[in-house]
Amino acid sequence: MNKVFHPSASRGHANHGWLESYHSFSFANYYNPERMQFGTLRVLNDDRVAPGMGFGTHSHSNMEIISIPLRGDLEHKDSMGNTTVIREGDVQIMSAGTGVNHSEYNKNKDRDVAFLQIWILPNKVNVTPRYDQITLNPAALKDQWHTLLGPEGKHDGLWIHQDSWFHMGDFKNGGAISYKIRESTNALYIFVLEGKATVEGETLERRDALGIWDIESVGFDIEKDSRILLIEVPFSN
Prior knowledge:
Layout: E1 2-6, E2 12-15, E3 19-23, E4 41-49, E5 54-60, E6 64-71, E7 73-78, E8 83-87, E9 90-95, E10 100-106, E11 113-120, E12 130-135, H1 138-141, E13 146-151, E14 159-160, E15 165-171, E16 175-180, E17 186-194, E18 197-199, E19 202-204, E20 209-213, E21 217-222, E22 226-234
Parallel strand pairs: 13-14
Antiparallel strand pairs: 1-20, 2-3, 3-4, 4-11, 5-10, 6-9, 6-11, 7-8, 7-10, 9-12, 13-15, 15-22, 16-21, 17-20, 17-22, 18-19, 18-21
């Protein structure tokens, strides 16, 4: 077993007034040669956008982009003709492929919006761009791991072009639980959204993260009222 601990305070930070962002990996003006990516997990940004503000139209290609709202309403528009609003409890995926233009704005004028922006390097390039989103059933996350998305052809729900799995759990009651790595060459990136957990001897609190690899199953001791995101990705060290 190997692991790397990323405390919340070690993340890159940018405050542009309308946007405050914490970067788990090198992004924009934040550069850390030891924090370029974790396997195929390239970006994990913890963003807060001021009322009525947002990201104007810009382009991406050959990247799997996942957005997970944590608070508020985020309006999405893209060159594929999609105009949607995603809220807490939704998960959005955009496969940029050959290229897509999009914008993301805080839908509300009276409160901020907070969301995770996650980029996964794809296992196929120059695919046809696509967009999808789902609304989660809160009961499905209660005190267990619930699958948010999986690889193309291996998951019936939301999928991406990569052998990657996303899970989330809302542990109102806390307790002990494990997670079995689905692919032997994959690693697990654990991101504590709220609360506290001990994972393989490491104590993680709010917004702390732990990357772990060369292990078949990961054990968790989770405190009450904790919410945790798991990102399993192909990994080579």
